[in-house]
Amino acid sequence: MINNLVKLAREENDYATESFLQWYVTEQVEEEASPAEIIQKLKFIGKDGRGLLMIDKDLAARVFTVPAVTEP
């Protein structure tokens, strides 16, 4: 969906909207990568309880960072 909005902004030569949408594109890429990394780690450790505890600790330590607001 976000890619369709960026495409439309480009077709309309709406550079301000395209720039605004770039944060969402970057965020989507990061959000898609995060589960893939977790799945890869889970496959690697298998049923090792210590590994699961380490992953749990890492996930619990994640902190949401509010994006900076830029003035137009």
From TrEMBL:
<dbReference type="GO" id="GO:0008199">
    <property type="term" value="F:ferric iron binding"/>
</dbReference>
<dbReference type="Pfam" id="PF00210">
    <property type="entry name" value="Ferritin"/>
</dbReference>
<dbReference type="InterPro" id="IPR009078">
    <property type="entry name" value="Ferritin-like_SF"/>
</dbReference>
<dbReference type="InterPro" id="IPR009040">
    <property type="entry name" value="Ferritin-like_diiron"/>
</dbReference>
<dbReference type="InterPro" id="IPR012347">
    <property type="entry name" value="Ferritin-like"/>
</dbReference>
<dbReference type="InterPro" id="IPR008331">
    <property type="entry name" value="Ferritin_DPS_dom"/>
</dbReference>
<protein>
    <recommendedName>
        <fullName>Ferritin-like diiron domain-containing protein</fullName>
    </recommendedName>
</protein>
<feature type="domain" description="Ferritin-like diiron">
    <location>
        <begin position="1"/>
        <end position="46"/>
    </location>
</feature>
